[in-house]
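[step 3/7] fold_predict: job queued, chain A
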Amino acid sequence: MINQNLDDILWLLGKGFDTIAEELWHSPEEAREVVQAVLDNKDKTASILEDKDLWTIDTDVSDLDWEELKILIEKKYSVQIIDDALNAHEIFGIFWTVKLDNLKLVPLVWDALFMMLWMDEIVSIIELKLSDDKFIWKAKVKWNPLTIDFSISKINWIWEMHKEEFDSQSTTQSYKDWGDLKIQLQDKYKIVINLGDATIVTNNNWVLYGILDNFWNPWLKVPFVWTKILSSFAWNPVKDTRSLAFWQYWAYLKWEVQLSDWDWYRFEWENLIWKEDIAWVQIYSDWSILEHIIQNKYKINILDKKYELTNWHNGNFYWSVTTDEWYKIPFFWDHLYDRFWLKKVTDSKNISFSSISWDLYCNIRLDDWVWYEYNWWPTLWDRLKIYNDWNDISSTIEKSHNLSIDCCVENYIQADWSMAWKLKLTTGVILPFQWIRLFTNIWWREIKDCSGIHTVSSWFLAWDVQLEDNLWHDFEGDTIKWYSPLHRN
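[step 4/7] structure written:
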């Protein structure tokens, strides 16, 4: 038997690839697929083994901060996450919605990333619900106008995805027959839709949405989504509708409506999401509209509101709201600042702003019951400033800039705010930083020392720095103000 096997092997070695393929796999095509799969797995295995920084499968996710977890997920699934920890929730596990570099919004539960729903690519997840033992929500998949209900739960210590059957007849049902849909709309709203009253839009022969002439006022137009006519938002009647379009593989139905304040608003599906304004400054004059937008955008219930700073050019843009969890959260226009570093904001106070820079300032308390200083800047990292905890800010600087701090030499305080610090590295270099912005070089020349921290205008810091040429320069923010060096003994 052994001799026969050896003879067979020697015979195969003397033949070509096609002959071997037919003997072992019945066809050369099947053989090539198997060989290619083996080579692909070999390359993937080699890249994993060569990566010494990859966490082991035994890594405890609860011990990782978001940046560490992000690196782990990107390496584990060969993806790039471009938006960090959107709508993070904690229940029996930890859940995030993450945005990938292809702009898809997918669920991440602890260290399990779900990019496929059976054989379909997930492009977005919406309407998250939390039960006692699982996450339940709707998903939009590629090339499908319908939403799919599914859940993720842990079974035998593994996170698994399951289809939910309880909501098969959801509000996102589509219709192939406009006549049938028209009858349902007429019966539901007790109206008569005549020929020419409706502008309907179809995708792959499905009637998804459209515009109806307003039956109460023929000069106005209102949108409808399936069997729901959206004649008002936040008790504001719709005056007109425009720009209906699907976006990103039918994941989002976006359009615009004009409300009673004569401003245009963008909405997705059935919810307002923001004010459609050419300028980046989106000022809201009607609290009911803004409340509707914030509740839909952040999936919260607002119990109360406080007008900290309002009525700027007849608009409201600095507020705080109290949620049904009794959290008091600040927001700026329609942006709610409810979370920093994966910690929830539980309270806020002392909201003020600079009349020169429009920067928003306030104190916030996180769910660690520690109060922090907060400042509205273009980037999140510059918006949160530690009030008086040197240990926290020292750790943040060291992690962000990969350096070792010896001590804090001096801090500058104005109006009870710790605005700037001088820190000494273990190398002996003394560097300035503002809030948590560290300045290590100017014009690619390393900073050796700094002194004379002061303000030159409202909340604008200046100081003197010594560069590697041993000359001192006058310095404001991150720019040298005077080109001629300061002379010092």
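[step 5/7] annotate
Helices lie at 2-13, 17-25, 28-50, 66-77, 178-189, 287-298, 390-401.
The first helix runs from residue 2 to 13.
exit 0
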